[in-house]
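Dissemination and training. As part of the outreach component of the grant, students in the summer workshop were shown how a complex can be specified as a set of sequence lines and then modelled as a single object. The example used during the hands-on session is reproduced here so that future cohorts can follow it. Participants entered these lines:
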Amino acid sequence: MSNLLLFQKYINFRRIIKLLILIIGLIAIWNIQFQLDINRKTALRERLMEELSYFPSGKFLKPIVIEYQSAVADIIYLRAIQYYAQHLMTDRKYIWLDHIFDILMSLDPHFVGAYDFGSVILAWDARQIDEALKLLYLAIAHNPTNWKLVFDAAFIEYMLTRNYVSAGYYFEIASKLPETWTITGRWAAFAFARGGATELAVEVWLSIYQLTENRKLKEIAIRELKRLGFPIQKLE
Amino acid sequence: MKISAIILNTFREAIRDKIFIAIIIFSIIVMGGARLIKPLTLGEEAKVIKDIGLNSITLFAVLIAILIGGRLVYKEIEKRTVYLILSRPIYRWQFIIGKYFGLMLVLFESILIMTGVFYLILLLLQIQANFYLLWAVILTFFELAVVTAIAIFFSTFSTPITSSVFTFALYFIGHLTRDLKTLAAISKSAPTMIISDVLYYILPNLSNFNIKAHVVHNALLDYKVIFMTIIYAVVYSAFVLFVSCLIFNKKDF
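and obtained this result:
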């Protein structure tokens, strides 16, 4: 009898039963969720993507998330990457991409990295060129001094829509923005020339020739001006 | 002297409070968890981690202000400790002010801890941690000054749950007041215009304090506006505390 009491003292059966109930409960929850995932026709990741379609437009989402807009924008950006990666590896259909970036634009219009990424995948992978340009125009309106966005618009115009004059204008704007690539000015001239806007191309090359101290660049400018039929003697 | 005793007592009480500690630990876990997101951000890790850090600081500090602030005065009434305090040579307004600054001290300490952890995470992840980000934290602190004053105001006449709900509702509305201004501008009905305008100026305009996106994107800050926002917080909190004191003075103990 005393042994039993001693045993009960050290091993509290009630406590063990409570612990067992907790463990069984956790296993049951785990198992049910596991079975649910198996029985569902769509995968978890796909369902997460489906959620995006139920997201209200950015205009409605913005007041709901009050001062946490930038954090919600980050979450949506991460979802956009997941969405892109998943469809890149499967059907290559990106139905909700423009909707996702529309939400992002409303929540954080200065998230340049996201629009840079968004415009590239919309234009090159989803082949939604108009949406890509629309996204870039909006992003440029909010970030007018960011050369990358203007450069992206120029690149899409040059490579995909083959609107060389428009591309030339964008490259020229990009070349004048802070921290830009030095090559963008030359690309503007090339794009104008390719689009048949010879006068504009000459104008850009002349400005490059006059503004640069780089001897090599001056030589390139002279070579291109010659090619465009500009009388070189006028330079002296 | 009397006020400082109440401030210290409120501070000690809140420190012992499990909610406060739980929220602080949880915020640190969330900020630490941001590290896991790093590989998923496609080169935007600096922006995402700064966003998560600043937003976590705000969210958890607001939770502390609402949950603890909402029951600060009521708890003393319910436990009848208020009789003990007010039986001493102490004014009722001193009690309210002491409670307010006690909680503000708690919030200051928790923001300090969370900001320290946030900067530590930025350093560990080798993300440029400039002091520019601190402006967002400073304005969050002043936003909390307003939210805490509102929480204490509700706490003087309602139960902890209702005062927390009311404070949260006002916090939410406080971020949407600019829409009232827009409504007043576009409305053609005179009463709507007047009501919207009145509400716009009476309700706390908490969106003034939100510069998180600005500092994360390194956008230029208007220091004059920041200074005026701080003045706004001080005046608004003082006004709400004054009304709270008036209500508390009328209470029968």
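The CA atoms of residues 4 and 82 of chain B lie 16 Å apart. Students were then asked to discuss how this feature might be tested experimentally.
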